[in-house]
């Protein structure tokens, strides 16, 4: 897992939408973002809270999705999912995708030449890559993860 040392904001313009990606955003960047895109305090908390569980919410003008992707951390010395995964928060509208994350996932380094017909194709790309990262773990690590999830039930 690679964590960013400093905040990075990347804007990618695709044919039918714009993707704004905030990597390791600080409070100033989030405040600047909310000047242009007012969000309620609960959404801001969900975006900034490190250990938040995955979820999906439908709002009047956008959808909100939180994903967790395996970060490459070893499962040997941990007992919780947030310490081995990174959170990706997505704000999704017809013509814009905004992402917030603290872990530098390679699959988020997408060039503008990528062929996404709609914003939801990009969301599917992110979702499928986040889920597929689990394949990089060993069987014993996956079994330990299953045990952690069973503890939540």
Give a written overview of the molecule.
This protein is α+β, with helices and mostly antiparallel strands. It contains four helices and six strands; from the N terminus they run E-E-H-H-E-E-E-E-H-H. Strands 1-2-6-5-4-3 form a six-stranded mixed β-sheet, with helices on one face. A hairpin with a 2-residue loop joins strand 5 (85-93) and strand 6 (96-101). The longest helix has 14 residues, at 119-132. The relative contact order is 0.18.
Helices and strands in order, then pairings?
Layout: E1 8-13, E2 18-23, H1 27-36, H2 41-48, E3 55-58, E4 63-70, E5 85-93, E6 96-101, H3 119-132, H4 139-152
Parallel strand pairs: 2-6
Antiparallel strand pairs: 1-2, 3-4, 4-5, 5-6
Structure characteristics:
single chain, 6-stranded mixed β-sheet, 153 residues, alpha+beta, 6 strands, 4 helices
Structure summary:
This protein has 153 residues and is of the alpha+beta class. It has helices spanning 27-36, 41-48, 119-132, 139-152; strands at residues 8-13, 18-23, 55-58, 63-70, 85-93, 96-101.
Low-confidence stretches are 145-153
Strand order of the largest sheet: 1-2-6-5-4-3
The count of DSSP E runs of length 2 or more, i.e. the number of strands, is 6
Beta percentage is 25-35%
Mean of residue pLDDT values: 79
Order of helices and strands: EEHHEEEEHH
What structural class do you assign from the helix and strand content?
Answer: alpha+beta
With helices defined by DSSP (H or I, 4 residues minimum), what is the helix count? Answer: 4
Kindly provide the radius of gyration, computed on alpha-carbon positions and rounded to a whole number of angstroms. Answer: 16 Å
| Coarse morphology | globular
Q: Helical amount among residues, as a percent range?
A: 25-40%
* Major β-sheet profile: 6 strands, mixed
- Span of the ends, CA to CA: 28 Å
